[in-house]
Specification:
heterodimer, A: about 110 residues, B: about 240 residues
Chain lengths: ~110, ~240
């Protein structure tokens, strides 16, 4: 799929996301001395942002609910994801995870 | 007196083991941007200005589906909210810097530069009785941080350019777009270090799967928020 947005919209996204991301990064570096730190309740919530966001990004690309349980589980993307997750857990290495996942996807594509 | 270039170089050296993750991640960011229909200049511009891989990939993915621009921006911002934690954690070490330098340091703040810097800084805290938090006994923190962070920014741009060039020549049938969720997976797995985080991931992923067909592509955002809420709830119930 490719976007139908024009250059103006894309550049606007680049600049707005860039500006807001900078504001997040600069926030407490700028504020230090004026506030004493992140309020504990917010800090607790922020702790779970990476796990929740990353899982929300990963899951729909690997789990595609099919007509039957078997069809859902025997999906090439899910199998590649399971192998990738295993390699990520064992190695904590992005390159190894990428290679294992892509090779599994291609291998399963040949078999299934 | 610590010499400036030495600490800058020491910062660069500290990043070397991470390049094996950073370079393929940047390549994927470049490939994905071009695949989504961004021009090479837009793809590299995104990497230069935003410099936050996960949010770049999510934004590009949503753009490719013609999601509303508000959803694109909001999703990217939610993904980057975690950096406010890094900002708070590292702020004391940047307190004595001039405002412009502090802003530059903030612009270069990422998961990786934070991890490298905080390891060095807290190590220095243990060794040094110095009152100035911008210096430890042996390391000028500003130069060490800038060495690591600026070098990673530079490598990120090179990798993105590499991805842009590659992306134009890889046939779609190879399924290379699957590299994007694999990158996220590689970042996700080490996060699952305790029960609340694991629950946050299960709920976040589950809601995102269910919400894959939701209007405005709100499934990702909904999953992220539900996952965070679930993590907080489980955390609150855990014995202190």
């Amino acid at each position: 799929m490719t976007t139908t947005y024009g250059p103006l919209a894309i550049w606007a996204v680049v600049l707005v996301v860039g500006a807001l991301t900078f504001a997040i990064r600069y926030s407490f570096i700028y504020l230090l001395g004026r506030v004493s730190g992140v309020p504990p309740r917010i800090e607790r919530a922020l702790r779970y942002v990476p796990a929740a966001v990353l899982a929300a990004l990963v899951a729909p690309a690997m789990v595609d609910p099919g007509a039957t349980v078997a069809a859902t589980l025997l999906d090439d993307h899910l199998l590649a994801g399971v192998v990738g997750a295993g390699v990520a857990w064992l190695t904590e290495n992005m390159f190894a995870t990428l290679v294992a996942g892509m090779l599994t996807l291609w291998a399963v594509g040949v078999v299934l | 007196m610590p010499t400036v270039p030495d600490d800058f170089l020491a910062g660069i050296r500290a990043t070397l083991p991470l390049l094996l993750g950073l370079i393929p991640f940047g390549l994927v960011a470049g490939v994905a941007a071009v695949d989504a229909g961004l021009s090479p200049a837009q793809a590299v511009g995104l990497s230069m200005v935003v410099f936050a891989g996960a949010s770049q990939l999510a934004a590009v993915d949503l753009l490719a589906r013609d999601a509303s621009l508000a959803v694109v921006v909001l999703t990217a911002v939610v993904i980057n909210l975690r950096m406010s934690m890094y900002s708070a954690s590292i702020a004391p070490y940047f307190e004595s810097l001039r405002r412009r330098v502090a802003a530059l340091c903030a612009f270069l703040l990422t998961d990786m530069s934070y991890a490298i810097a905080i390891a060095e800084f807290t190590d220095g805290d243990a060794q040094s009785a110095s009152d100035d938090p911008s210096e430890t006994g042996t390391t000028d923190r500003r130069w060490y941080y800038l060495g690591a962070a600026a070098f990673m920014w530079f490598v990120w741009q090179l990798a993105t350019v590499g991805g842009v060039v590659l992306g134009a020549s890889i046939p779609e049938s190879w399924g290379v777009s699957f590299a994007v969720p694999l990158v996220f997976l590689a970042l996700l797995v080490p996060e699952l270090s305790d029960r609340p985080r694991t629950v946050a991931a299960l709920v976040g992923g589950g809601v995102a799967v269910v919400g894959a067909g939701w209007p405005l592509n709100l499934g990702l955002l909904g999953g992220a928020l539900a996952g965070v809420a679930a993590g907080v709830v489980v955390d609150g119930r855990a014995p202190a």
